[in-house]
Amino acid sequence: MGIIKLKNIRTFSNHGCLIEESKIGSQYRVDLEIEADLTLSAQTDRLGDTVDYVHLNKIVVEEMAIRSELLEHVAQRIIDRTLNELELVEKVTVEVAKINPPIGGDVQEVTILLTKKR
């Protein structure tokens, strides 16, 4: 089993429960980690034998562009698409962080972390 990580994917999105959040938007950070059997790709050196991290990044960017009220919902969509579209993936962990959330305090980020196995 191997691990592929995409760290610090930055997006600008309009997630949140407040009307202002849907209009103004915020900066987000996403970290994605998958577990898969990478034995074959380590031997063959062929992209078709591994989990393409370009595909993983595409899933994150596309799902972050779809507005949701809750970060949990966005994270779950990323997990579901990853497992549905990439058969080699056995486990997905996604962390979605809203940077400088509008919660009336000096908070760097609010983060949701979800994990799912096949």
TrEMBL record:
TM spans (from-to): none
Source organism per UniProt: Flavobacterium davisii
A GO cellular component entry from the record: cytoplasm
Substrates-to-products reaction catalysed: 7,8-dihydroneopterin = 6-hydroxymethyl-7,8-dihydropterin + glycolaldehyde
Enzyme Commission number, as recorded: 4.1.2.25
Record's protein name: 7,8-dihydroneopterin aldolase
A Pfam family annotated for this UniProt entry: FolB
Function per UniProt: Catalyzes the conversion of 7,8-dihydroneopterin to 6-hydroxymethyl-7,8-dihydropterin.
Entries under NCBIfam families matching the protein: folB, folB_dom
Top EC class for this record: lyase
